[in-house]
# Entry
Amino acid sequence: MRAQLPAPPTAGVKMPMTNAIRPRRALAATLILTALLIASPGARASAVTGDASYSFTPTKICAIQWRDGPLQVRHLIRCAARYYGVNPDKAVTVAHRESMFDPDAYNAWSCAKGIYQHLCRYWPGRAYDYGFKGWSAFNARANIIVTMKMVRRYGWAPWS
# Structure
């Protein structure tokens, strides 16, 4: 059997942090935070714009099956409008006027698509800015949530 060494006289006693350790810990914390910001695209967007709520969309928001028909599309619009603080009645009225709740609505003359008839030339940028990069304007969930985020930020001016 081996003999165990006695504990040092300072065991269990908290030593005061020296002035050399504090800057090292601050530097380490800064490096870790910087690495997390660089690795996370959502965090990077919020660091640049100062508002993550526009570029980030939670995955579980308004889990309504919009493919089941116009009634479900209307429910999704009302849910998203309430979630983003937009007037649900106005949101439903505009969607009815633009597409009659048809996700596949398309205007060949102006090249407008989807529930809220986003113009083809603007949709990719809007989808990217509001957290749906690469999504189709014909996807009702993407079209509705992008619209609600836009309306919260800018109002209904693009649809008036």
